[in-house]
Amino acid sequence: MTKDECKQLVIEIIADIAPDEDLSNLKPDVRLRDQLQLDSMDFLDIVMELRKRHGIEVPESDYMKLASLDSCAEYLTPKFEAIAGKK
Amino acid sequence: MIFAGQWLGKTAWPFAGGCQRRAFSIPSMKQSRIVITGVGLTAPNGNTLSEYRQNLLTGVSGVELLEVRYMGPQPAGVCHFDPLRYQKKKDVRIGTRAGSISIHCAREALADSRIDWEKCDHARAGVYLGITEHGNVETENEIYNVSLFKFDTKFWTHHHNPRTVANNPAGEVSLNLGVTGPAYTLGAACAAGNLGVIHAAQMLRLGEVDVAFAGGVSESIHTFGIFAAFKSQGALASNPDPAKASRPFDRKRNGIVVSEGGCIFTMERLEDAVARGAKIYGEVGGYCVNSDATDYVLPNSVRQAECIRKAVANAGLTPADIDIVNTHATATPQGDIQECQAIGEVFAGCPDVHINNTKSFIGHAMGAAGALELAGNLPSFDDLMVHPTINVDDLDPQCALPGLVLNQPCKAKRVDAILNNSFGMLGINSTLIIIRYRP
Predict the structure, then answer these.
(1) Quick one: B138 and B213 in the same domain?
(2) What is the span of the domain harbouring residue B373?
(3) Which chain B residues are Cβ-neighbours of A41 within 8 angstroms?
(4) pLDDT value at position B1?
(5) Catalytic entry in B190, B263, B307, B399
């Protein structure tokens, strides 16, 4: 999985969590919460959807690593690959 | 002769002096007159009062087949309003169906009332919504969800608690409208819609709020449990034609059609409504709430009759002053007979009273039933038409009350007082009387 593919999966989740938001011009290096109306409950939804859809666990100590699309890709891509390797 | 202003009698006022308790009276004071100034609703056969009323007068049912989890297609009353008219997609996702219904109804009532909301003190507004139950839908959905993950509770949503707290529907209204006054629900089984209105009248009279959003809501069709429980009880309607499934008073009635819906009224003290030139739909004439104290589910016609009589007396009326009795009857074999016994006793010797039933069109909207059924009859003050009970092909002799309006609407000579019955499990009874507004 490439980092761009990882970002796309995250965007798909955000599209469901924040359906009123325009996600077409998200800046990958800017914090998601600075670009979108996302609160802590929405963030928990993102964590839950990663768990449900992809089997990825994000421990609370790593929540900050989901701050931007770039940091999401950096953190999640190896996890996606690890899960793909198990299948 | 109908009059509206009730008077408080001499009221005992406890006074602690030393070890003695003294009682003394305060002067009588006139109660505020409370009026309905706006109506917002969603019913299975209409999303506005005019659409709903038109369908009630032309015999249009709102019952359709609904796929119910684990049970297959069931006749049900389904509402078709657009939640996105007043909510963002995210709010719909996070909230509940009951919340969306409540917001739709509150917003529609507010618009109908023409209250200048921006200039209102939002802390002086109250939201009082009757519910039969709340939280079953969301709990069932979550149990189903975790069942897909081997019942691992780490997949249980963090939205569960705010969705299932009993005040959720009223709380969602407060969030949407920015109401900072009291906003809560009243759990009163299927009497709850009336309770919302009655409670609002009490709070307005106490001066707790200046405007109330009051009524009842239900999302019950989205829980299989209520269908399954009624079926286990032998009280769930079935019929090859869903539009014929809800048939109170008919010999072939076989149970309840479960429905969703909501109806919220804006209510104000008369002087406030008059001061702003509001349209007044009707005035709270009187009411009664009592309890059977006899059974979990079986109704008690003696207590029902007592409730009706006390409401009539509370309004300062006699049974002969009542023009329309909107029945609670849910189309269960025994429940309809019990209510007819109660009505027959109270209204014996009142040949001009008209008796109808709204559930025959929309099914049983549970917590919304009382308010929705009242709303469907309010226009009778203007057009003098009484909507019928439909689907009565073969009237049960034990329900054959003289004043029943069956299958076709009729025009009344006079509509000055509408009496609305709503009864519920655990033996809660409510009767609400709305009278024609006269200055």
Answers:
(1) yes
(2) 286-435
(3) 94, 158-159
(4) 40
(5) B190
